[in-house]
Amino acid sequence: MTGGVVRGGDLAALRGHHVYADFCSGSIWAMPADRSASPREVAGQDSRRMISSIAADSDGNVYFLVFGGPILRVAAAS
Fold first, then answer.
1. pTM of the model
2. Cβ-based neighbours of 25, under 8 Å, separated by 6 or more
3. Do 19 and 4 form a contact (C-beta atoms < 8 A)?
């Protein structure tokens, strides 16, 4: 598992949540950092990619680093 807490960026629904991913399956979950609720799978986020790390830039935007592949910026659904 890899993960990190979302603190800013354009992902309002995930602010203050610990977001983490399963390296083997690519499934992505979120749980409030204060553990006030159970983890939930992030809707539509079965990436089927080997996410090796989750990172954020100085603006709070979240990125998934894919093993042997691209860096993906996580964006809110439009």
1. 0.69
2. 46, 48
3. yes
